[in-house]
Specification:
By secondary structure, this protein is of the alpha/beta class. Helices cover about 35% and strands about 20% of the residues. The longest helix has 20 residues, at about 155-175.
Amino acid sequence: MINGFGITGKKFLITGGAGFIGSSLARIISKNNEVIIFDNLHNNALKNTSLTDNPNLRIVTGNVLDYSTLEKSMDPDIEYLIHCAAIAGVDTVLKNPILTLNVNINGVFNIFKAAGKLTRLKRIIDFSTSEIYGKHAENVDEKALNLSISPEELRWSYAISKLSGEAIARTYYIHEKMPTVTIRPFNIFGPNQIGVGAVHNFVTHAIKELPIIINNNGSQVRSWCYIDDLVKGVLLTLENDIAVGQVYNIGNPDNTLTVYELARMIKLISESSSRIEYRETNYPDVELRIPKIDHAYEQLKFEPEINMEEGLKRTIEWYKIKNGVFH
């Protein structure tokens, strides 16, 4: 389905387009469309791709907090805007909670303010997070928010900032008639994931025969979604007008397992002899996170296709090649 993306000859802007998700979207979209990537290149996944040689792609270096540069990057003929730029990752958020709130709230305000001047805009996609569902989220649908997150714990700064971003997007949709869509991704993994993520950390350690470090006791339950399935879900929101004004969980509930089981599976597939070690964290962890994706299926016919074993095989193979590791 991804290779059959139906929008052609249009102009896109992807903020955070040099990151894992943004570059994965750019890879497909730029085949038949012009793409502007706006990114500070702090986490630059583009360097591991051939995208920089694509004549359909242009990179503008900038920060979403810099409104002037952001506004200048928005060519008047842009019709699709995908906002991926954010501060994410528990460790990063704990070290930089003020920056997290600033980028993930004021950055969204800047995006919508600047995009309000685009007269041809057909879609603006805002990336939220499954973190907003809190510590215990079993088969949660898009309306299942119980706000168990608390500003007393800095660990939730990210979720709070992303929920605020959702409120901004919703307000611009209602009051400014902007064609918004909100995406809540659930534990995305795959090749070229840089910087954060359990799969990234476990795989890079496993192929180098380093200890695989699990937070707490490893009983935390997650549903993992391969990057191609997330990309497919986002592209469906671009192609279908019914998506305007909607919020979608994008994940794969069939790929549900504990963090310990994930580590064991990565060890097995990568043929690693790495030890599994445990560390206690001093912040609240998410005990359970499984999405309900009926809304995306009913409106967009979104169905994830890549099972956990296949996704990990593809991911591990990519990291082995990148790191020059061969068993």
